[in-house]
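Sequence decides. Consider this:

===
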Amino acid sequence: MATYIVVVVCLMVVLSNVSFGSAKDYTVGDTAGWALSVDYTKWAKGKTFKVGDSLVFNYDTSHTVDLVSSSDYTTCTIGNSIASYNSGTTTIALNTTGSHYYICGIMGHCSGGMKLSIKVTSDGSPSPAPTSSSIPADSPSTTPLGTALPPPTVAGTTSNVPVESSSSPISPLIAVVFCLVAFMFELIHG
């Protein structure tokens, strides 16, 4: 009977530390960050972005991260951003499904390759990053001059993509080791 209780408690500890479908932080451009000379279409290819995930942009403060409409993305139009960030490290939560478009708002940087388009899904099914030929035409969303932009979410140090964005109180491996030790103790003394 005591062995049965130890096994049940151990299973509960292990299962409470397993994360299913956790949100992920994606460091844009991996170690290169948000910079010129990075192929962001290639970087996004094969990644599955889901609601709840975050994009982490690490960049020199001579760059910006601008959320833009699909037409501004396609034409690299600057000065029309929906939101703009320039802190050097910006974390953007992906809260809605659909296509999301980001460019650097410094003249010439978008046309030099500092642009990223991603497709965010709710169910986690892989979706390829939209290409310029597959981007639907829609009316640009603009923010009137003088409207306050939402403040950027600044993250600390980040590691490569993807990483779990939520942490367990104890590692699942430690939980398994704890359970094995408890089980062995129960077999020997029980």
